[in-house]
Amino acid sequence: MPRRANTNRLLVPGAAAVVNQFKEEIAAEFGVNLGSDTTSRANGSVGGEITKRFVTQAQNELKQ
């Protein structure tokens, strides 16, 4: 199956670098080496944690 091009647009320049750094930090916390040699469950746990932390951060900002 051919891969589709990523159509996500970044609204803030430089956001990709920050998200990638965040992803690496969480992977290190979980002891996961991101990449094709890692199970999709392990890679997915990192993505799920990123989402959880972003939602928590947004909720805290809305409370202020």
From TrEMBL:
Membrane spanning residue stretches: none
GO MF annotation: an example: double-stranded DNA binding
Record-level GO BP terms: DNA topological change
Record bears the keyword DNA-binding: yes
Alphabetically ordered keywords of this record: DNA-binding
Family statement: Belongs to the alpha/beta-type SASP family.
Function: SASP are bound to spore DNA. They are double-stranded DNA-binding proteins that cause DNA to change to an a-like conformation. They protect the DNA backbone from chemical and enzymatic cleavage and are thus involved in dormant spore's high resistance to UV light.
Name the record gives this protein: Alpha/beta-type small acid-soluble spore protein
Lineage: Bacteria, Bacillati, Bacillota, Bacilli, Bacillales
